[in-house]
Amino acid sequence: MLWDLIDHLDNSDVRRVVELGEKMVRPGGMVMIIVLGEQVVNSFVIGDGFRFYLRPQPHLDFPFHMRQNREILALLTPFTLVKSFIYRNGVREFLFRYD
Fold first, then answer.
1. pLDDT above 60 (res 1)
2. Among the residues of the chain, which ranges form H helices?
């Protein structure tokens, strides 16, 4: 899973992450990407019952690249989009399969 990471990387760094993903994911494996669409850097905490909680880190000043869905799909071309979801609060989820 990649949470809120590619929004803080430039395109060349995203391509490098995708290349690393190709090496780590087996054929038929899945990759889930969650794009929060906020300019605040976040971390995630595993809480009770193994639930994930968002922890904003406003003191961190990382660059932010707001990408459209087409741009995200183009950067992840080695993977096949299986499903995508857009929530009312702006969160976007993508599920990709590596063939």
1. no
2. 11-24, 69-75
The full set of domains in the chain, from first to last, is: 2-98 (3.40.50.150)
Residue type, 28: G
Interval 26-42: pLDDT, tens: 999 998 888 776 666 66
Q: Which strand (E) or helix (H) includes residue 8?
A: none
Nearest to 86 by CA among 36, 44, 40: 36
Distance CA 76, CA 95 (A): 11
- AA letter at 15: R
Chain center to CA of 95:
10
